[in-house]
Description:
Elements: H1 10-17, E1 21-22, E2 27-28, E3 37-40, E4 45-52, H2 60-72, E5 79-86, H3 89-106, E6 117-122, H4 130-143, E7 147-152, H5 160-163, E8 171-173, E9 182-184, E10 186-190, E11 193-198, H6 206-209, H7 217-226, E12 235-239, H8 246-254, E13 259-264, H9 268-283, E14 288-296, E15 298-299, E16 305-306, H10 313-321, E17 325-330, H11 333-341, H12 352-368, H13 384-395
Parallel strand pairs: 4-5, 6-12, 6-13, 7-11, 7-12, 13-14, 14-17
Antiparallel strand pairs: 1-2, 3-4, 8-9, 10-11, 15-16
Bound molecules: adenosine-5'-triphosphate.
Amino acid sequence: MAPDVAPPTRDDVMSVLRGVVDPELGADVVSLGMVPDVVVADDGVVTVTIKLTIGGCPLRADIKKDVESRLGLHPGVADVRIEWGEMTPEERSNVMSTARWIARERAPHTAVPTDCQVVAVASGKGGVGKSSVTANLAVALAARGFRVGVLDADIWGFSMPRLLGISDRMEAERVDGSEKPKIIPNKKQIGPGELEVVSTGFLVDESTALMWRGLMLTKAVEQFLSDVAWGELDYLLIDMPPGTGDVQMGLARLLPRASMLIVTTPARAAQKVAQRAADMAARSFLPVIGVVENMSAFVCDHGETYALFGDGGGEALATAIDAPLIGQVPLEPAVAAGNDDGVPVATGGDGAAAAEFRAIAERLATEIVPPKTDTDVDMAGCSARLLDAVNAAFDD
Ligand SMILES: Nc1ncnc2c1ncn2[C@@H]1O[C@H](COP(=O)(O)OP(=O)(O)OP(=O)(O)O)[C@@H](O)[C@H]1O
């Protein structure tokens, strides 16, 4: 039976649907381009087509309930029908860009300079050489003349003080009339460039650090992001704690403009674990810029190659998550020795591992995450159309 009141127009329906927010993507379904079609019949039956990012999206039931209850309240709507569709890979990647952009817009203010490239170095589990990769890339980038911040977010398992050979206590002081004292990073000159390093290791010794376990963890990372008097930086490398827990998600929320570099070993088992880090990156909309395989084949003095930890793990992970394999650092005693001496091998070493670290830094600086220029607008590839849509949503 036709309703007494005239059915809504298509525009009416669309504006009601702007109230339906995809909880995971953090924006409404219209702005996200999830509603390609709305048909309103003369009898007041409204048929809405909704495209999900993936067919089996777990939020489908929530979205359905929300659409039905909102439209059901609208005068002139006799019934609501939903037809489900699935996005094409291109549509999905557009939606992810939009969600990433929204997350950036809504992120809380941090003290990290807005014009520096933030790269979080992550792995699914400990011991794969994540900290070694962070330290070596930091010195290799600084040796090219960049100002490189290093944030040791491995709060209780910190290793940057030892790896970078810095032991000074960090001071806190009022900077530029700031209300609260700010943490002053420890600095180290590397050739024409400079490192600025922040680590709990500069606040406590290794035995005290254990007491922090679980306690102030997320808070400590938050403080490192908001209360540090960073200088001008071209890069900020974050040594992430191993795993994919709260601290990682917290960091992603606080610094959604970070991109992620994933470290794995040639072992297939490590590759599966590292994939979890990639999944976490995807859930928090952080783009994965590449995979570094560490502890790749060891080459002995006689030139024989030994794949001690197997092979193919880096390549397999890169293929699985559709990111480039940007380097394979061999297992080499010089890497461990450099770590122990506080002089990362990439500082001036002449072996294959040092050369590979420098090559990865070069790829990052020239191709993958070149330093930002003043005119760069960091929109993560958002198309103008999607930006308009999102802006319109914010205006509403
Ligand atoms: N390419 C390499 N060749 C030889 N030794 C290496 C190499 N990479 C790392 N190591 C050694 O392996 C050990 C683990 O490395 P590292 O501490 O960087 O791993 P991690 O993933 O950061 O671990 P954690 O998450 O526990 O901090 C260290 O003793 C380090 O010196």
